[in-house]
Structure formats: C-alpha cells, structure tokens
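Person: I keep going back and forth on a fold encoding question. Show me how you would write down a chain together with its backbone fold. Please set it down just below, with no commentary around it:
Helper:
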Amino acid sequence: MNRRYHGLVLALALSASSLPSVARADDRWSSVRPGLRLLRRSTRHADGAPLVLHVAVLNLCAVRGRFRATSPSETPSTTSRFAQRTSALVAINGDFFDRPGVPLGRARGDGREFAPRPEYYFGALVVARSGALPMVLERYEAPRQYTEVVSAQERVVVAGAARVDPHVQHSRQRHPRTAMGWSRDGRTVIFVVVDGRSRASAGATTPELALILRDLGAWEAVRFDGGGSSTLVVRSRVVNSPSDGAERSVANHLAFVEDPSSPSLDACLERAPDVVDIAPDAPRDSMPFPARTRAPRIAPVLARELSPLRRASLLSSRRS
C-alpha cells in the first residue's frame, strides 16, 4: 500500500462511543518463549464482516534484546528475509514506499541513515537505541542517539484513547493493517497485523484498528504501511496471511532481536520511561505545514511516575 501523505495533520480525538465495535470471538493464545506470547483472534465486525488479526505481545523486561530497523544496504526485502538476516524474534513491515527499497519517511537502521525525503512528512517516528525503550517522536527528524528509526503514518492510540486523523487517505476503508503499541509503563510492546482483502478477513478501518489496539492494552500506538505489505514474523515464520498471496518485498522493517548481552532496559530498573516525545513548537491546529520549519528539539511529554502495567493480568488471562 504505497501512498503519499504531505504534512502532518493533528488527529481528531474520538470518544469510545463514536468508534466502531468489534465482537469478541475465538482467541487462541500460544507461548513462543517466556516473555513472548502470540494471539490469533478470529471474530466479526459489528456489521458481520469477518476479521482475523495476529498479535505478538512482548515483555521487554523478560526478554533481553534490542530493536533493529532496516539499513539502506538491507533493502528491499521481505519481512521474513529481514528477520532471518537479523535473527529476529519478532519482525513487522515498516514505512510506506513508492519504489523498491526507498521508504517515504525518515528511516535509519543500525545507525545508517536513508537519504531524507523532505517532501514527505508522516505523523510520527518510532525510534530505538540500545538499553532504552522504543518510543514515539512526533517530529520530522530523530536525534542521532537513536540508531533505529521507522516512520509511521499516524498515532492511533494516544494516552489510552483512540485517535484517528480524518485527512489520511483510506483511513475509513477496510484493508490489511500493521501497527505497534505500548503499554502504559512502556515495558510491553504489542505488534499487530490484521488480515484483509479475503473471504476469511475483511480487514479493518483505522478507527477499528485503534479500537483493537486499545482493547489489547495499548496506551500508545502507531500505524505503519498496510495492504499487501502487512506482515508479522515470529521466529522466522510468517504468522499472518499476506493479502497478495505471498510476502511483499518492502522498503524497511522493525524487529526485536533477542540478545543476552544487551544492557538492561532503563524501564526495567524502575526508572519511569517517556513513551512519547513531541516537539514543543509543533502546531496544535491547522496543517499541513512545512516540516523543515521546525528545528529538531527534545521536550519529553508524559514524563511522570508511571504505575505498573494494570492490564498485564488482562493480557495474560486471555487464553483460548
């Protein structure tokens, strides 16, 4: 699903009553290893359309490792090939692209930067570095200390509330979807891929995706490229059903690599993490605006004493 999106448009916050409902149905949980669980959910939308989604729930305090994004020399590639190359425990597809191996948004992998394309500005950056939680930057550029950077189309869950940008193309149409969410304390990452464009699963709109992520316990969440690009790989196995009938080679990916030598995460040492970072001079009303008019600055928001994850028991209790 390759598309342009000029300018960041601040999302319209939606109340729970305005979001579509998704019925509960068949949840099949499996344990991949301590700290990583896999869910296959088969259900129906409120209008009866079938829905199948796949979820990998990763406890970052139970599995020592690091996040890894695609570098310029590793693309184009299918998600499973990238996962095999990096020995990833979990991997998903990343940014949108308009030609092979060239992501539209800002991208960095293993410390190596893709050539910037300032004409494109997406809603958020997902960034990571060794020994720290992955986080969201609502800005155009990522500071150099982040070695892994993948652009996301938009933030779909913000501070526990679903949020949808009404200006994003196709957000109200059902398609396969790829997303990533965080628990409130940042210590649990939720990878989600929704199957679509088939008789088995119709896919999801962006509002439906936001509701799914919130229901799974996401306090913050972003949406990546979808459609035929949507792929979730767990231990080198594609667990979803790509809508093209086979995996698509995409421009970049985001993976978690198990690595016992990685330093302990700050958040697991009882230090309160900042899950989101928004530029302080980011406009709060009309968009689009030229992304380059903002100087990159760091002003963490949500800096606070974060309570332990209250939804952990809910996630762990959802067994088939």
User: Anything to note?
Assistant: The CA atoms of residues 35 and 62 lie 5 Å apart. Residues 12-317 form one domain. Residues 1-19, 279-320 have pLDDT under 50 and may be disordered.
